[in-house]
Write a structure and sequence with these properties.
The protein is α/β, with parallel strands linked by helices. It folds into three domains: about 5-85, MurE/MurF, N-terminal domain (Udp-n-acetylmuramoylalanyl-d-glutamate--2,6- Diaminopimelate Ligase, Chain: A, domain 1); about 100-300, 3 Solenoid (UDP N-Acetylglucosamine Acyltransferase, domain 1); about 305-335. The chain has an eleven-stranded mixed sheet with strand order 8-11-14-17-22-25-28-31-34-36-37. It has a ten-stranded parallel sheet with strand order 6-9-12-15-18-23-26-29-32-35, with no helix packed on it.
């Protein structure tokens, strides 16, 4: 694809002679016909060394490259370039005779269902959706249009998935929530009769689990992105445009606002409210509500400023303790 065509497609200005671009790569590894990018100025020295045929960069770097796509946000626009060259996984089209599709299920024209997928009674699959081998779509589930369900994704009964969603391998949506009641007769299971509802443009990483509600719905809002190995408990309500990083665990009935970011291995207790735009740092243990826009870190969770002071001062505590002990001895000596 010509560099000028890419520029036109993305609405960017380009500088230098036109060139047939065959792919995208890093500044270190790009070839003469590949497109790269410079997002961080600290790597600007690589521009004199790269073999890349063109670079996505800001206007002030144009004079340092042979050809450029001029961007105010090179990282974002390079991602758009990658999307142009990205090759979708899987090449099959249509519905395999080796898939099991219940006679009462509805699979729209244009959907693809691979061999050994299971689509249960009264389930609905939208147009353009791809269901890979080993997927299980339970009874009364709804999958929207243009979704990707990678191998062995599981949607238990009555799960709803919006349009343009990506569900990676091994995801389980709608398993029973962890609901049990200790009684004099032992631990008794509480039936989980709710469901899971996922909005549109949601991506859910491999081996993530989102449990069905006890009653009502466990829900995830539009455009939220969830990493691998995340756990959402029953009746969690998550807003839109959230970023949830690997190994986060959110206990049941917690409400998460819009635009919330949770870093890796954060743990959120149940029945809490996490405000819009809040940020939870890595390995943070959250046991109380977080107001909107606040950044929390540490165990237990505290505001970021306090956490940073705590982290700075903690290594000095042993020396401080020694100094206090010495002062105590000197005071005792003076008393004598």
């Amino acid at each position: 694809m010509l560099l000028s065509t890419i520029a036109q497609h993305l609405g960017l200005e380009f500088a230098g002679e036109d060139l047939e671009i065959t792919g995208v790569n890093t500044l270190d590894d790009a070839l003469e016909t590949e497109l790269s990018f410079l997002a961080n100025p600290k790597y600007a020295s690589k521009l004199s060394e790269t073999k890349a045929g063109a670079v996505v960069c800001t206007a002030d770097q144009v004079e340092n490259v042979q050809r450029a796509l001029i961007s105010e946000n090179p990282y974002f626009d390079f991602a758009r370039c990658v999307a142009i060259f990205a090759k979708p996984q899987g090449e099959m089209k249509g519905v395999s005779e080796l898939a099991f599709i219940d006679p009462t299920a509805t699979v729209a024209d244009g959907a693809t269902v691979y061999p050994h997928a299971f689509i249960g009674p009264r389930a609905t699959i939208g147009s353009g959706t791809v269901v890979f081998p080993g997927c299980y779509i339970g009874e009364d589930s709804t999958v929207g249009s243009d979704c990707l369900l990678y191998p062995n994704a599981v949607l238990m009964a009555e799960t709803t998935l919006g349009d343009d969603c990506i569900v990676h391998a091994g995801v389980v949506l709608g398993a029973d929530g962890f609901g049990f009641a200790p009684t004099e007769y032992g631990v008794q299971k509480i039936p989980q009769i709710g469901n899971v509802t996922i909005g549109s443009d949601v991506e859910i990483g491999a081996n993530t689990t989102i449990d069905r509600a006890v009653l009502g719905s466990t829900s995830v809002g539009d455009a939220t992105k969830i990493d691998n190995l995340v756990m959402l408990g029953h009746n969690v309500e998550m807003g839109s445009n959230c970023l949830i990083v690997s190994q986060v665990g959110i206990s049941g009935s917690t409400k998460v606002g819009n635009g919330v970011v949770m870093a890796g291995q954060a743990g959120i207790a149940g029945h809490l409210n996490i405000g819009d735009g809040a940020t939870v740092g890595p390995k943070t243990g959250v046991g109380k509500d977080i107001p909107a826009g606040v950044t929390m870190a540490g165990m237990p969770a505290m505001e970021k400023g306090i956490f940073m002071r705590h982290t700075t001062l903690s290594p000095k505590i042993p020396d401080l303790f020694k100094r206090v002990r010495q002062l105590e001895k000197e005071i005792e000596a003076l008393k004598k």
